């Protein structure tokens, strides 16, 4: 019985005259898949992406040449490479927020005993930029680059609350209000009411709206035009962070966000 190699095809003869943009799009889709599902073989990646094995192999070898992916031997398993990290890090260097937020995040983690996060909006979603983890065994974890919906995120709701209403409604219309738990706000009316409360108290609360048993408190960071450009938060398990504790943490989170706003030359609205 013959066994097909899992890392590369026996033969490779793809003579399709592909458009360059189409090839790039396929390559980026494959790169995204490898990042989300590390340790898969060539055939598994091809099956999951719906592309021909030869096409996937050509894309992986090209990406490997730029250190974007790596091939683990033995076993022929594909992983994300250091080149992808270097490229992704350029996004973090685009703004001073990540650098200037680190000290405030460290202090926030010490003051609350919970994980501190930094995030921003990217194409109608929250993308996490940095994190300072608590030393507790049970804790929240969001790797830099992790994305999520705004309506069920502490940082997402903090940004939505200070966006112009037209922009907030646009994001809701495009992304929808998917239900994740019994506490997720799935109607525009309930979300807008929650955002109004957020503005009144100065910080948002994700009360187990994305994941049962986890709470998050967040506040926005503003640029020089008093526009919300990022958010800072603390998140932790509900058994440690009750509603009263979350409210107490809110003042600390807002103070940390305000310090970052000041350190980056921002202005309060």
Q: What does this protein look like?
A:
The model is unreliable at 1-5 and 10-19 (pLDDT under 50). It is built from 9 helices and 8 strands. Strand 3 (115-122) and strand 4 form a beta hairpin. It has helices spanning 20-36, 42-49, 53-65, 82-93, 97-112, 154-162, 165-175, 188-201, 243-263; strands at 69-72, 77-80, 115-122, 125-132, 147-149, 204-207, 214-222, 228-237. By secondary structure, it is α+β, with helices and mostly antiparallel strands. Helix 1 packs across helix 3 (53-65). The strands form 2 sheets. A 6-stranded antiparallel beta sheet has the order 5-4-3-8-7-6, with helices on both faces. It has 2 domains: 20-87, Winged helix-like DNA-binding domain superfamily/Winged helix DNA-binding domain (Arc Repressor Mutant, subunit A); 95-263, Beta-Lactamase (2-Layer Sandwich), CATH 3.30.450.40. It is globular, with a radius of gyration of 22 Å.
